[in-house]
């Protein structure tokens, strides 16, 4: 109950959704640090080896953003892929473009951008789209020339579409599915792990086709996307239901999860799959259950990160998610993050142990209508090959096919464990040496037994003293008698 009250106060003070700070690639895009700095052993350009099959290469920027090359009006741009938004914007000027005479803006959980809406010939992933609408943002320190974001979310969330109110203003995927109705209405995403010592891919995106080596995804359960209420359609995301209490904590128990999405009329939590959000956002109780029982774990507030758990960097954190009864293991290298990867000084806990940041961060709401409980960002998405089927989300399609998501687990628990030992423990497996501590109890519960112990200890000490006095007195009397 302790932290419920401040959370409520927060709700009343602010009118809209806030993710406290929380590392969002959109805020720091693009390339916050030199992406090649933390790669694999020197000489091996492993990150550049994309899986051999279909799909367009994604450039992984230290696990904090995945970028694809596009051309607009004949000019190259490198843009962040983002399933959490629905507009294309770029930073810099596109000469071969037409100004629509309107302006638009996109707001994200953190920050936003604004500029004139133009149209130009887009080339993306082998597709050519004439007159694609986009927003042109002046380049500055934060948005470097030649960069931007490609929003892959549903058109109901598109600010440009709302502005232009015609197919011309539709997001890129709608345009692709619309101009060739034979192209299946889905796309897939595979995200690589920067420090992974055994899987050497950077990332891939496909539209209307599947990566050959992951074709098993088509046999996975189709998890229906859920709808937000129609008056909230601008907040529609690529979202599904997690199984009831569908997270297995490091102690092997299921975490009890209360959903805040009232209109969903289910006990299951609603989660958004967002490849534009670096660190996943979960309710505080969930992040407490994940990180709170490790020795040396502490909940702290870190500049630029906000309230977060830190755990000793050598602590392996094993967590599994469940969707449609299937298990999705999260790689321990995705559960905690070394602070230098986001340009922070090293962090120590109160015992002086080198500590890593818990990547599944607690977040709070500051709005009345809550449409999702968690944002499963990159740290989650690196563990699954994901297929997003747009179904009837596509503009002008006369279909009632429900949109769905299929998830193929690509993290093997045994292999992930040995990766963790290699990367964090220098090859020496010490993970068995640490136990879990009891969850912290509330004050009243823990002080009562302790008081009782003190009373018992006091009584015992008093009796020992009495007995000692008795023997001393008796011994003196005896020696007095002998004299
Ligand atoms: C990935 O991005 C970095 C930083 O911009 C760049 O130096 C590198 O050449 C890119 N790699 C590929 C294969 O595009
Ligand atoms: C404009 O487009 C043409 C081809 O469509 C291309 O040759 C030319 O380089 C482009 N100009 C600029 C400034 O990008
Ligand atoms: C339309 O898409 C199908 C399937 O992806 C492809 O075979 C065909 O060539 C495309 N047609 C055009 C005109 O691009
Ligand atoms: C859409 O489908 C419905 C039912 O199949 C049909 O009655 C209607 O005419 C269709 N509309 C268009 C524009 O094709
Ligand atoms: C995981 O990897 C180990 C070792 O590479 C292998 O023996 C095991 O069969 C794999 N498990 C699954 C479920 O693929
Ligand atoms: C994490 O899981 C792996 C694979 O199942 C196991 O070998 C390892 O001991 C586990 N680590 C901890 C700290 O529980």
UniProtKB/TrEMBL annotation:
SUPFAM superfamilies: Acid proteases (SSF50630). The keyword Transmembrane helix applies. The chain crosses the membrane at residues 452-473. It comes from the Eukaryota. InterPro entries: Aspartic_peptidase_A1, Aspartic_peptidase_AS, Pepsin-like_dom, PEPTIDASE_A1, Peptidase_aspartic_dom_sf. Residues 66-398 form the Peptidase A1 domain. One of its GO terms (biological process) is proteolysis. GO terms for molecular function: aspartic-type endopeptidase activity. Residues 1-20 form the signal peptide. Keywords: Aspartyl protease, Hydrolase, Membrane, Protease, Signal, Transmembrane, Transmembrane helix. Belongs to the peptidase A1 family. This is Aspartic peptidase domain-containing protein. The lineage of its organism: Eukaryota, Fungi, Dikarya, Basidiomycota, Agaricomycotina.
């Amino acid at each position: 109950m302790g932290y419920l009250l401040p959370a409520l106060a927060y709700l009343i003070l602010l009118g809209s959704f806030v993710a406290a700070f929380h590392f969002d690639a959109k805020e720091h895009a693009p390339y916050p640090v030199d992406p090649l700095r933390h790669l694999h052993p020197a000489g091996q350009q492993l990150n550049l080896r994309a899986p051999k099959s279909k799909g367009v290469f994604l450039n992984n920027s230290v696990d904090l953003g995945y970028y694809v090359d596009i051309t607009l009006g004949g000019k190259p741009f490198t843009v962040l892929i983002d399933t959490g938004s629905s507009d294309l914007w770029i930073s810099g000027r596109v000469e071969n473009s037409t100004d629509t005479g309107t302006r638009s803006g996109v707001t994200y959980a953190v920050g936003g951008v604004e500029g004139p809406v133009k149209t130009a010939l887009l080339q993306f992933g082998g597709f050519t789209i004439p007159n694609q609408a986009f927003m042109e943002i002046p380049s500055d320190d934060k948005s470097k020339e030649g960069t931007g974001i490609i929003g892959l979310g549903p058109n109901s969330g598109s600010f440009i579409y709302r502005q232009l109110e015609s197919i011309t203003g539709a997001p890129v995927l709608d345009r692709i599915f619309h101009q060739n109705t034979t192209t299946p209405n889905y796309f897939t995403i595979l995200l690589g792990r920067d420090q992974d010592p055994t899987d050497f891919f950077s990332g891939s995106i496909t539209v209307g086709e599947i990566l050959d080596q992951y074709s098993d995804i088509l046999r996975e359960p189709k998890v229906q996307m859920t709808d937000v209420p129609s008056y909230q359609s601008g907040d529609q995301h690529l979202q599904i239901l997690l199984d009831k209490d569908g997270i297995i904590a490091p102690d092997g128990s299921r975490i009890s999860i209360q959903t805040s999405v009232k209109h969903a009329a289910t006990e299951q939590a609603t989660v958004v799959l967002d490849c534009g959000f670096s660190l996943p956002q979960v309710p505080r109780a969930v992040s407490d259950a994940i990180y709170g029982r490790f020795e040396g774990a502490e909940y702290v507030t870190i500049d630029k990160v906000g309230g977060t758990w830190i755990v000793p960097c050598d602590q392996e954190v094993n967590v599994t998610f469940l969707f449609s009864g299937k298990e999705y293991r999260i790689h321990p290298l995705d559960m905690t993050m070394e602070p230098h990867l986001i340009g922070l000084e090293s962090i120590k806990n109160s015992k002086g142990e080198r500590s890593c940041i818990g990547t599944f961060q607690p977040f709070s709401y500051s709005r009345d209508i809550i449409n999702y409980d968690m944002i499963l960002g990159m740290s989650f998405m690196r563990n699954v090959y994901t297929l997003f089927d747009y179904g009837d989300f596509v503009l002008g399609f006369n279909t009632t096919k429900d949109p769905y998501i299929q998830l193929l687990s690509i993290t093997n628990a045994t292999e992930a464990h040995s990766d963790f030992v290699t990367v964090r423990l220098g090859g020496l497996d010490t993970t068995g040496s640490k136990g879990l501590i009891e969850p912290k109890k509330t004050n009243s519960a823990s002080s009562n037994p302790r008081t009782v112990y003190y009373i018992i200890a006091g009584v015992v000490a008093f009796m020992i003293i009495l007995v000692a006095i008795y023997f001393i007195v008796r011994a003196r009397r005896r020696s007095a008698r002998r004299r």
